Amino acid sequence: MIDGDTIVISGTHIRIAGIDAPELDHPWGKKSKFAMIQLCKGKIVTATLDSSSSYDRVVGKCHLDDGTDLAEALVTQGLALDWPKYSGGAYRHLEPDGIRKKLWRAAARQQGRYKPGT
Known about the structure:
By secondary structure, this protein is of the alpha+beta class. The protein has helices at residues 29-40, 70-76, 84-87, 99-102, 104-110; strands spanning 6-9, 12-16, 19-20, 45-54, 57-64, 81-82.
């Protein structure tokens, strides 16, 4: 795991489609990463890649062998946000109440109000 929305499968960096998790140096960033580690630990993860890329990563939906959608699981736990620009709002209904205030940097980034390094 790189962070809450980037995993590595067989040496390939994969950006999990449709969500935005906090960066590691942001509040909740490390907790998001460790939640992803716990979800995947000892499990087979399958990525269905789309044709896009993001910062030297391929983009795709990732599922566990039991069918668990990793994006859905992290949003449900309140450790990532739906990113409607990329998901079409697929995960928005799973966001816990008040999560956009808690993960304010990720929410601001989606609206173009926050740039990394500021």
